[in-house]
Amino acid sequence: MINKKWSLLIALLSLHIGAQQTESIKTRNSSAEKDAADREIAQLKRDLKVAHDQINDLQLELEKAQQYPLLDAIFSGANGFLIPQEEKNSISHRGGAPTYGEIKYPSLDAILHDLNVDENDVFYDLGSGVGKTVMQAHLNYPFQKTVGVELAPTRHKQAEAVADKLRNRMLEFRQEDMLTTDLSDATVIYMCSTCFSDDLMGKLLDRFTKLKPGLVVITLKELPDRAKSVGFDLIKKYTLPMSWSAGNSVYVYKYTKPRK
Asked: In CATH, what number does 79-255 get?
């Protein structure tokens, strides 16, 4: 990433030099040549803006990446893989999966960066485990609020222990069922849903149709086939690293309005 940034800086400098050289042409050549120079300067300015934007994006990526060791330190000792059998049974009974896995930090950043979230957005992670995804969204993005919903008490208690250290009311963890928890203020919902049953996915879709248009759903398992007919458009598909895979599909849907 550092080498890429230096390459962009060199390209940016070259564009500046090119713009200065073209500007000098305008002062000493014919009208036709000046018109050509004007067009060239306009293109160079557009190229400069693109280069500036790319450098700014890289700077943001670097700043976010600097948070990864902090997140590791915050969750040092947390382990969502080991929970009692009765908790596994409770999750399975509701159509979920006790199998545990986590999205990699850069993978979540890639998705949330593309969404251009702001201070009006509220993030939910349904099946939030020990809370890493919620914490990353809280630290790296301007969400009004970030909420994790986890059924397993063992995982929830670990997330709560981390939240207690920060004592921030914009960071919330609930030990609740994702089918009954209040989602009324959600604008972005993430689900590590790879092992969710089809029945659970259908019930969640029904819940989502009762939320505000504009809702974005990020899911590792496709929404049911009827999703489009009830207002959910697939706006992007990623292949990104997870804790269990070097390349897992991630589907991003946006809720508009039901089709007539």
From this structure: 3.40.50.150
